[in-house]
Each structure stands twice: as structure tokens, then as C-alpha cells.
User: Fold these one by one.
Assistant:
Number 1:
Amino acid sequence: MTSAEIEKIIIETLTTLQAGCGEPPQSISSATKPLDELGFFDSLLAIETTLSLEQKLKCKCPDDNAFFDKDNGKILAIAEIAARFAKIQGKAA
């Protein structure tokens, strides 16, 4: 699966979560940093969403939270998250 296909799945997942939270909709793109820019999205939801994405993408993320880079202490954008998942899938293939 390509990074672009994975980005689409991440954005669809976040859009669905956003619709269910009752907050006003925000634009979500590949440049969006969910932990920083989406008011409804917190660290607990990031862990739950990571597990959901692992199931959808049929791969295991080495971290509990795919939305945060523990090594660099950096909040990740959707494009960066997708690239990480694509890399994981590449190793598994």
C-alpha cells in the first residue's frame, strides 16, 4: 500500500472520529498534525486510533502512538504517519 493510500485511510478514520465527537468540523489534510491541531484528538484517542489503523492496515506499529515520534519528541503530520506505516508494511512484505 502506498503512503497516499494510507494517508487517505488515516484521514477517513479521523474524519469519522471527528463527526462523532460533536465538535465543529475542521479541515483534515496530509499536513494536519492531529495531536496539535484537532481539538477532539488527545493522546488516549491517539493510542486507540493507532490500534484501529494497525487492524485496517494489517501491520504492527512499533510504538503505542503512531501520532508522536518518541525518539525526537515530535508531533507528526498525517503524511509522516502514513510514511511510517508504509515503511512498516514494506518490512513486513
Note: The CA atoms of residues 44 and 65 lie 9 Å apart.
Number 2:
Amino acid sequence: MIDAADSPTTSKPPFDRCPRCGYSLRGLPANHACPECGLRYDEACVVFAVVNPKQLVVVWIAIISGGWVSLKNLPHLANFAAAATWQKIGAIAGLLWIPMVVGLAWLLYTRYRRGFKVVVTGDGVMLNVPGLTDELIPWDRVESASIKDVREGQGQVVKVTLSSPERTIQIGGVANVFPERADAERFVEQVNRRTNATHGSDSAEG
């Protein structure tokens, strides 16, 4: 986890670079917005880095294994008419596998080139976790956050309930965002404090 500054009197941003666009925030105030993308931040914002995104490794192992089997059948394209049915299928799969892997690699690079992380920002919760989402969820869409009970020794799991549309996102588990309960508790505290402030303001205006 990359900690934000502990003191509320800090004079510098909680991150060296904007977690969304990568723009350098050095020299800017502690409470400001990224000059490049406009993401708001303050001294209490924090980044939780994914410790071990195992599901991504599993996906790539499956892709590479399937591709190796498929590529072995590419030579059958030279004599496609005489090849057995399973050899034809394997050869075609091998052809399709190459652009699929290139496309997937490019997709992962563009979405996650700044790393796998969960960020509490001034504008909402930013999720960059493979298999989950890569969006910024505004605070007015977040209802609450809570810690899900897990077995001892496992990575912590946090549930974030969205108000519109009503659904729950589970963060953690295989993608180990919160290795310690203290990390999960800090995330939940930050989220609930900001959502309470947001929904409280909405109620007061109503």
C-alpha cells in the first residue's frame, strides 16, 4: 500500500503522480486537482496497490498454453484439404490466437500500464484491477463499504455497495489489494467518511 501523508497539515499531494493519468503532481498543493485530467485529490487520499494479481497470471497461462497447442497445428494449413478435422480446427485456432493475444496485450497495457491499484480520490473510488473494472466510481454512486469475513491468513476482502445502479463490488481476495486487515479498515473508513459527507450534503440540499 502507498500511504497518503499521515498529517492533515501536509503541504504536498498524497501521490507523486496522478493515479489516473500519470501527470507529475510535484510542487502542487495538498488539496488540488490534476492539471492534466482534473482528478481531485486531498491529503487523505490513498493508493492501495494490488500485491499479487493471481487471476491475471492464470489467464495468461491459459492463453499461452492454448496458443502453444494451436500453433503446433499451423503447418496443417499447407495441406489443409488433407488434414483431419481436429487438425483443421487447431490450425484455424492458431491463426486466430495470434491477433487475439496481441489485442489482449494491448488492452491490458493501455488500461493497466500505471499498475494495478485501488485509489481513494476526491472524486470517487478508482478501480484498476484486472477482472474487476477500470473505472472511477463517483462518491454519489457509492452507498457504503464494509469488510467481508475471510479465513485467517487470506487477503482481506472489502464490499463496496453502489447506490445507482444498486450492486456490490468485492475488492480483494485473489487480487490481493488488502493484505492486512488494517489496510481494509483504512479503505472502509475513508470510503464511508466520504460517502457520508456526500449523501449528507445531498440530504441537506434536499
Note: The chain has two domains: 32-53+116-205, 55-112.
Number 3:
Amino acid sequence: MLGDIFNQFLYQPIFDFFVFLYNIFGHNIGLAIIVLTLIIRIILFPISQKSIKAQMRMTGYRKQIKEIQQKFKTKEEQSRELMKFYKENKINPFSGCLPLLIQLPILIALYRVFITALNSKDGLINPIFLGLNLSKSNPIMAILAGIAQFFASQMTIKRSAMMPQPGASDKAMEKQRAMTKQMNYFFPILTVIIAWRWPAGLPFYWIISTILGLAQDYYLYKKYGRDQKHD
């Protein structure tokens, strides 16, 4: 039943729209991928904007959160006082999870759309873009996807450094920062390994999506970071 709902409301509409874009842009699969990625980013923009705005607002309370951590030593006391503090100041500490939860089924649907389109045997989709066959694996695309992921990981490190970590000791925070730095290299390498086996259209989508995501995050963090300084 869940599979039918997924196919009916996500996979099939996205696939049909992708074929529509492919036809509109003169059977150019590269342009169809770029435009589809851009449209999905635009649709999800309000959610990302709300999430980042809430995160940046939370940074303005870093001093108060630190004081609560120093005043209350046990995790239970810290959690109780922090939840009380969040409620009084109308802060949602889990706001950053919402975009991920919403994007995950969309990413799964997109994966299936591109796999189906790129492996089409009936000639419905021409996989050639700028001389590259996007239905075949391509090392250059895999490496570029890894590079894009590296810059995305760098943004994540900066973001985690800005965000206060409620309920965590200084030692735990230092350990978490060290692990985050390790992930900065692990995820790009993992991306290259996975993308190396995928049809080139999938890492191409990942490159475009990551670049658009970086531009979006840069704009939003700069905007709400500037607003935060004025508060």
C-alpha cells in the first residue's frame, strides 16, 4: 500500500514531469535534469528558509544556553531547563530535521526516475548530453560529485560550529567537532565510490543539486546572520 502511494504521488508525477521537460527542451536530458533540480529546490525553498531562520535565531541564545549548561550539571536537569527555555522563547530545537525528512522520499523518487529514464530500452530518452552518455558510469562525473560534496561538508562544519549544542559538555562538543571534520573527508570519498558505479546522470544531478544547495544556504545564512546581528 505504501509503495502504491509512493508511486502514485511521488515517483510517477516526477517521472511524467521529467519526460515533459525532456520533450520541451528538445530532447536534451542534461537541461531536463538541471531544470527539474532547480524546480524541486524552489518548491522546497520555503521549508529550508524556515529551518535556517530558526537555527540562526537559536544562535542568538547561545550565551543563555551556555549559562544553563553551567548552572545545571546533570543531563536530566539541563534537558528540563532547556525545554522550558525553548518553550518560553518559542524555539524549536528540531527544526533542522524537517527539510531532511521531507527531502528523503523525494530523493528516493528522483533516484528511481533517473534510473528508469537512463536505462530506457525503448528509445524514450536519449541519454547523450554534451557528448557524454549519462546512462553509463563516468569517472569524471563521480569525482566532480565528490568535490561538490566536499564543499557541502565544509558548509556543514561551519553550520555545526555556529549552532549551540544543548546538553553537551565541552569535552563532548570537542569530540563531536573532531568527528565532523573526519566526516568532511569521508562523505566526499563515499560519494565518489558510489557515483563511480552509477549512471553518470545521477552524479550529474547530485552536482547540480549540491551547487544549488550551497548557493541557497550561503544566501540564507548570510541574510539571517545579518538580521541576527541587528537584533
Note: The chain has a mean pLDDT of 82.
Number 4:
Amino acid sequence: MTTTISADKGMLRKLPAECDAPPCIVDFNERNVFRIFINRNDEIMVEDEIINIADLKDLTKAFIDNNGENVCDYCSGEQLITSSDKPSEAVIFLKHDALTNYGAFILVQDEISKAYYDLRSNYAKKVLNKSSEELTKKELQVVKKAYPFILSEVKVERN
């Protein structure tokens, strides 16, 4: 018995553009960074507290949609001073141990993606009065601009 593995499958992520002209450092407000860490025991920590995977999507959505600057007219967040200023500045920082189980890493990635999907879907309904499936390419770009997927991934190396 044999099988083939499709080489064109994988996780779709937009990589950041190369920095052509130094300095390549971006200033950001610390509150705009949502820190997720998966340790060697596959425990998920958000802002240094262990959480259940079932809570990750809602925590991520609340962080992104916070509207801390009160300038986002489509956001429905609580405007906490400890969460993001607006969706366009919210950065999800995902760090994992070198011994993290691949399955746990993918589960976390999936929950983050679901959070963005929900936010984008709600935006399409609320602002464009359409379901996600009804959006034109141009409208989809508007939705993605309202909730840009900004993810920074880091693996902790072991010697």
C-alpha cells in the first residue's frame, strides 16, 4: 500500500516584507502585544497565566477588538487599558518551547485563526451587511484591513 502526500498543503500566512532601508525597528505600545506561550508540557499561557485551549479564541477576540483608543467605530470591545488600542495595532505574539508538541501548536494556531475569522465575519455582517461567503474580492480586502492578521512567532531554542 502506498500514498502520496500533497506538497501544496500548509498554513497560509503572509510573511512580513523585507526591510530595505534601516532602521528596521517598529515602535509599538506594549499593550498592543498579546503574548501566548506554549510550554514543553503543552500548557498554554496567556500573559503568564495558564489557560484552557477552549478560552483562547474568546481571549484573543477580546484583545484584538478592545478599542482602547476609542477610535474604532466598528469595534465592540471593553476599552480596557491593558488591551489593544485598535485592531490594526494588535499583535499576537506566539512563542513555543522547542519541545512543544506539534499538535498543541496547531491547536493554538487554529484558535487564533478562528478568532480573526469571527471578527472579520462579524464586521462583514455589521458594516457591509453581507455574510463572509457573499463578499467580493474588494470587500474582502476591506474586511482584512479592518482586522489585519498580525502574528509574530518565536520558538525557544534548546541546546
Note: Residues 62 and 148 are 15 Å apart (CA to CA).
